[in-house]
Design a protein that fits this description.
The complex is a heterodimer of chains A (201) and B (117).
Chain A lengths: L2 H10 L4 E5 L3 H10 L6 H12 L4 H4 E6 L1 H4 L9 H6 L4 E5 L4 E4 L2 E7 L5 H11 L3 E8 L8 H20 L3 E8 L7 H15 L1
Parallel strand pairs in A: 1-2, 2-3, 3-6, 6-7
Antiparallel strand pairs in A: 4-5
Chain B lengths: L13 H15 L6 E4 L6 H14 L5 E6 L1 H13 L4 H19 L5 H5 L1
Parallel strand pairs in B: 1-2
The chains are: A alpha/beta (201), B mainly alpha (117).
Chain lengths: 201, 117
């Protein structure tokens, strides 16, 4: 079995899953403000290091997806964030896309950006301890969506991302998120999600 | 997961969600993929746990089916923490419970009863 396959299985086997803690500073600020906590670097660190030093990490969390700010932070527990995560035998990961922007020629849809300079950024994240990465492609459902353009554009980006991540010695999580927005039924969700996954893989 | 849109009138139970989700994965994902980690977007902590549990009870594929949850692991812990950001132990207890429930669900061993404890 290849090294990458071993990492992938370690993250998801034996009743373990992934803690997605890769909220961007903007999203984290919304979350913190919703519970009336000021969003500053220290508070973002404090909440996350509290989770990452929990006893359930060892048996329940095989991997943690981090955001750029977090993977570079030093905890108040005398360890860097990736070291703290690894001390529970959990694998640190990193979100590497730079967000979904409006898709040219289909203004209701989005394309995920972040390929420029990705090879260099991956090298840096590997040095910081990351052994897997995440890239989120986002799709909407309506009568006309997702369009072929959206399906192919996002598949192209995800494929290039995945190849670069593997080249850097890390496992790529392919995340096609078909959004729940809309009044479609589950049968429509089934058909459209199946189409997205088939074209992408 | 295969779910109706948030503005849909359709009522589906987790058994139907699991059946459709497993069929979608079985039909669309090549066998080289080591596993599937679902997102919890739009679901409550409990719904995301229950649906994943049902998916694993019905899973006849070779894929590992687990979680990649953000809010469904963090939300209760965040609420608790916000009342006293120095209460590390209490926050961790709440996070531990959610993580354990998700872990059980990834093995198809979660129940409503054990979640209430």
């Amino acid at each position: 079995m290849s090294e990458l396959n071993k990492i992938a299985l370690k993250i998801i086997s034996n009743g373990k899953g992934i803690l997605a803690a890769d909220e961007s500073t903007g999203t984290m600020t919304k979350r913190l403000n919703s519970v009336k906590v000021e969003s500053n670097e220290q508070n973002r660190l404090l909440f996350r290091q509290t989770l990452f030093s929990s006893s359930s990490m060892k048996d329940c969390i095989g991997g943690v997806i981090l955001y750029d700010e977090t993977i570079k932070q030093n905890t108040t527990l005398k360890k860097k964030i990736p070291e703290l995560i690894s001390s529970s035998d959990t694998i640190p990961g990193i979100k590497v896309d730079t967000g979904a922007k409006v898709l040219a020629n289909s203004p209701d849809e989005k394309i995920t950006e972040g390929l420029d300079g990705l090879r260099e950024r991956l090298k840096e994240y590997y040095k910081l301890g990351a052994r897997f990465a995440k890239w989120r492609g986002v799709y909407i459902i309506s009568d006309k969506h997702p369009s072929k353009l959206s399906i192919y554009s996002n598949a192209h980006s995800l494929a290039r991302y995945a190849a670069l991540v593997q080249e850097a010695g890390m496992v790529p999580i392919i995340e096609p998120e078909v959004l729940m927005d809309g009044n479609h039924n589950s049968e429509v969700c089934f058909k459209k999600t199946s189409e997205v996954i088939k074209k992408m893989l | 997961m295969i779910l109706p849109g948030v503005n849909s009138d359709e009522k589906v139970d987790s058994s139907k969600i699991a059946e459709m989700t497993n069929k979608c994965i079985e039909d669309s994902v090549p066998s080289e993929v080591p596993g599937i980690a679902f997102l919890s977007g739009g679901q409550t902590e409990k719904e995301a746990t229950k649906n994943l549990n049902e998916i694993n009870i019905k899973n006849k594929t070779k894929f590992i089916m687990t979680y990649s949850y953000g809010r469904a692991l963090q939300q209760s812990a965040l609420k608790f923490w916000s009342k006293d950001i120095n209460n590390i132990k209490g926050t961790q207890e709440i996070f531990n419970h959610r993580a354990k429930m998700c872990s059980l669900a990834s093995k198809g061993k979660w129940t409503e009863k054990v979640d209430k404890k």
